[in-house]
Write a structure and sequence with these properties.
- The chain has 425 residues and is an alpha+beta fold.
- Helix content is 33%, strand content 25%.
- The protein folds into two domains: 252 residues, FAD/NAD(P)-binding domain, CATH 3.50.50; 152 residues, no CATH class.
- The longest helix has 19 residues.
C-alpha cells in the first residue's frame, strides 16, 4: 500500500489530472497521464488501493485474454464497438508488457486467459503501484470524493473530505456496484449524475443464479466440466455456453452460468419464465448416446441399474438423477424398458432448472449498466457534456463475459482517458 501523505493547501491547486478511484482503470489512467508529463493525483476512498483487483480470479487475477480485438468486441455488451479505438491504442499485449517491465511474468492458460505466473493477484497490484511510483504519481487513500466542481460545463476540480482540489481534468474510475465491500458501492454514478449524465439501469452481472426445488441443493459442491448449458425464455432457446459449472446450496454458479447470467438477469427483470437445461453429454448426439446406453445396459444385464449409472455420471449425481427419473435403483439392467431408456437419454441431454432469481450485487463479479456510452467520446473517454471530465472502467455501460475481458476494458479505457488528458492539457 502506498504511504499516505498530508496534502497541503498549495498542493491542492497543483495537479494537471485528478483520478478518482485506485482500481485497475484508475491506476492505468494515472500512469499514462504521468508518462506524458502530467502531475497526477489519485484519490481512493478505501484505505488500500486495488481492493477489488486483489479478489479477481479467486485471488489469482485473470489479467486479460488473448482474443483478437474483433473477437473481444463480440463478448462485450451492450455496445462492444464503442471500445474499438480504446483497444487499438492499448490492448492485451500492452498490459502484459507493462506488467513484465515491472516484474510480473504471465502464463497463458486454456480459454486464452492470462494469469500472473505466481498465481497471486497482489503481484499485479504491486507492479502497477511500482509503475506509478516511478512516475511520481501521488496516491492518497481514505479520501472520499463528495462532488465534482463544474462551472459552465467545464470541470474545475473536486471536493473530497470537505476540501477542494482544483484541476482541469478529472477521471472518474470508481467502479460499479458489485462487491461493495471493496469500495464499489455506486457512488461514482451519483457524481456523474450530478454533472448531468444519464445512468443506464444498473443490474448485477456475472452473478450466480437461484433455482426452484432442491436438486441443485442436493448436488451442492459438485463441479461439472465440459457440459453445455442452454437458456430458455418462455420456452424458446435464448442462449447457450459450453464449459464448467458448479452446483451451490441456492442454485447454479461457475463460468458458463456466470456468462449466461447477463441474459438471465434481464429476462427475469422482464418477468419472463426462465429455465436452464444442462446437457451432460454434449459430445454425443441423441443417437450415439442411445447406442451407448443400450450397449452398457446389455453388457451389464444382471447388474442393478444404479451401478451402471456410475459409468455415465459422477457418483454424487447418481441417486439424484435416478430419483428424478422415478426409476427403481434395484432394477436389473436387462429390465430397463425402451421407454425408460429414452427418459434416461432425455434427462442426460436436458437436465432442467427453473430459475427463480439471481444473487445480489454482493456476489456479482461486475455491474451491467452505468454511464451511457452515448454521452462519452469513444475516441477520448471524455464526457460529451462536461469538458475535462473523463470516465474509465466498470462505471461505463459496458460489461463482458468471464475470462479477463472486463479487466481489459478497465485497462484500455483507463489508458485512453489518461492519454487524452495530455492532449487537452
Amino acid at each position: 500500500m502506498v504511504k499516505q501523505q498530508k496534502i497541503t493547501l498549495c498542493q491542492m491547486n497543483n495537479f494537471d489530472v485528478i483520478v478518482v478511484g485506485a482500481g485497475p482503470a484508475g491506476l492505468l489512467a494515472a500512469g499514462r497521464a504521468a508518462e506524458l508529463g502530467c502531475k497526477v493525483l489519485v484519490l481512493e476512498k478505501m484505505r488500500q488501493e486495488g481492493r477489488k483487483l486483489l479478489i479477481t480470479g479467486k485471488g489469482r487475477c485473470n489479467i486479460t485474454n488473448d482474443s483478437s480485438i474483433g473477437d473481444f468486441i463480440t463478448h462485450v455488451y451492450p455496445n462492444g464497438r464503442f471500445l474499438r479505438n480504446a483497444f487499438s491504442q492499448f490492448f492485451s499485449k500492452d498490459i502484459i508488457d507493462l506488467l513484465h517491465k515491472n516484474g510480473v511474468e504471465s502464463t497463458l492458460e486454456r480459454g486464452g486467459r492470462y494469469f500472473p505466473s505466481s498465481n497471486k493477484s497482489k503481484d499485479v497490484l504491486k507492479a502497477l503501484l511500482k509503475w506509478l511510483s516511478k512516475l511520481k504519481v501521488e496516491i492518497h487513500c481514505g479520501h472520499r470524493v463528495e462532488k465534482l466542481i463544474v462551472e459552465n460545463n467545464n470541470i474545475h476540480g473536486i471536493q473530497a473530505n470537505g476540501k477542494k482540489f482544483m484541476t482541469r481534468h478529472v477521471i472518474l474510475a470508481t467502479g460499479g456496484k458489485s462487491y461493495p465491500a471493496t469500495g464499489s458501492n455506486g457512488e461514482g454514478y451519483e457524481l456523474a449524475r450530478g454533472a448531468g449524465h444519464s445512468i443506464e439501469k444498473l443490474r448485477p452481472a456475472l452473478v450466480p443464479l437461484e433455482t426452484e426445488g432442491r436438486v441443485a441443493q442436493k448436488l451442492q459442491g459438485l463441479n461439472l466440466k465440459n457440459v453445455k448449458a442452454v437458456v430458455w425464455v418462455n420456452g424458446k432457446k435464448a442462449g447457450e455456453d459450453f464449459g464448467e459449472m458448479l452446483f451451490t446450496h441456492f442454485g447454479l454458479s461457475g463460468p458458463i452460468i456466470l456468462t449466461l447470467s447477463r441474459l438471465v438477469v434481464d429476462e427475469l427483470h422482464k418477468k419472463n419464465k426462465v429455465e436452464i437445461t444442462v446437457d451432460l453429454k454434449p459430445a454425443l448426439d441423441e443417437q450415439k448416446l442411445d447406442n451407448r446406453l443400450l450397449r452398457d445396459l446389455n453388457e451389464h444385464g444382471k447388474k442393478k441399474v444404479i451401478n451402471v449409472f456410475r459409468y455415465w455420471l459422477p457418483a454424487t449425481m447418481v441417486p439424484v438423477f435416478i430419483d428424478l427419473l422415478g426409476l427403481d435403483p434395484e432394477k436389473e439392467c436387462h429390465q430397463v424398458s425402451s421407454k425408460e431408456r429414452k427418459q434416461i437419454r432425455h434427462l442426460l441431454k436436458n437436465l432442467p432448472f427453473r430459475i427463480t432469481n439471481h444473487r445480489s450485487f454482493k456476489e456479482a463479479i461486475i455491474t451491467a449498466g452505468g454511464i451511457s456510452t452515448n454521452e462519452i467520446s469513444s475516441k477520448t473517454m471524455e464526457s460529451k457534456l462536461v469538458t475535462g471530465l473523463y470516465f474509465a472502467g466498470e462505471m461505463i455501460d459496458l460489461d463482458a463475459k468471464t475470462g479477463g475481458y472486463n479487466l481489459q476494458i478497465a485497462y484500455s479505457t483507463g489508458w485512453l482517458a489518461g492519454n487524452s488528458c495530455m492532449k487537452n492539457k
